[in-house]
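step=predict obj=Siroheme synthase n=467
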Amino acid sequence: MEHLPLFINIKHRPCLVVGGGVVAARKVRLLLARGGRVTVVAPELDAGLQARQAEFCWLEQGFAEHHLDGQFLVVAATDNAEVNARVYQLANRRGILVNKADDSKRSAVIFPSIVERFPLQVAFSTGGGAPWLARLLRARLDALLPRHWGGLARVAGTLRRQVQQAFGSSDERRRFWARVQDDVTLTALLQQGDKAGAEAWLRQAMTKPLAGEVILVGAGPGDPDLLTIKALNELQKADVVLFDQLVSDEILALIRPEAERVAVGKKAGHHSVPQEQINQLLVEHALAGKRVVRLKGGDPFMFGRGAEELQTLKAAGIRYQVVPGITAAAGATAYAGIPLTHRDHAQSAVFITGHCKQDGEEPDWASLARGRQTLVIYMGLMRSAHIRQQLLHHGLDGNTPVALIERGTTRQQRVVRGRLQELAQLAERVESPALMVIGEVAALADSLAWFTPQADAAGIDTMERCG
């Protein structure tokens, strides 16, 4: 890319815009917003420029070379290609910064797309090659950047020296801002425009010790695009992340690069790190003053033992938060084209786990075997024969449709379908992690499936059926 990204101070500097149409109006608006002393050369102005005529100098005439005298920045924005080329050539010859609108190859400077939370600015460009992509990125960033961050940046600038004095190392300062940036009280003050109140709150916060905290974060069912904005924010503030095997590499790549990563290897049937040791690690890191993210597949409170971890933290007097995630029952079934409820087939959905504590009580199989409901079973592969036996014994029809969704929402997703009476055989063809769906709605995957994983592109049928 030929252009070097720079932020240029144009406040009170002379800027010339040649042209009076829609494109020129857009450039004039940007220059005025940043304090430029703008002159417009054009025989006539469009309605937008006319409405702001008092804010700039208008020379009601065609372009001449002497208009370049003393200019810091020049924009060629007429609808005449020859005039634009002449402006560019003359300005370039004089060494003046020049932008030829909609022609990045012949521009010394280009205007990037901007997302702004004054004084915070994010500017980016595709070099003029894909303006649609720049617009898409702008929309995404505009949605992601919290509205109060502009006020936060202003207050942070005012208190920068005091924060440096209060916290001796850059790591301590980073942890301080990570702790306070999304505090509900501070956010409310900033949103209300109460700068004095926000500064007072932050001064008080500086006097408090940097205590550790644990955030339980749901990573969702696998597709990184299903991660919540809050979850992403926490991953980028963490000092330490303890993660399970169910968390995908794409999501792990979003963790702050400097953060310590601890694989606790928790997955159905394979606990390389015992739960008690995981609890202890959370406590130890938090007591060391660190911001700890406990990253779990799906949702932390859906068969994820999140409540047990919070009970340990509460007993140790450690602060904690919970960031919900999309659970596999909602995510994997949606990607497989299986509605959890349907007016004609299922009026309720029941979530159960096939993996219980040793000597744990059996579920109420008689209730689970009722018709016109959907059973969604987590971690049920190893007990598939027992599940089939109990449901059949308590009266559920052996021809009831079932679906096993392997690695749901990911590019490796595979759906194996059949009947309840074949459940044990179907389970032998599926690898963990997999979700089990039992009920009439499972048959709708044939007609409602929409997700095309990468395997389809290779000619592999990712919807297998039996019976």
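step=describe
The longest strand covers residues 213-218.
step=end
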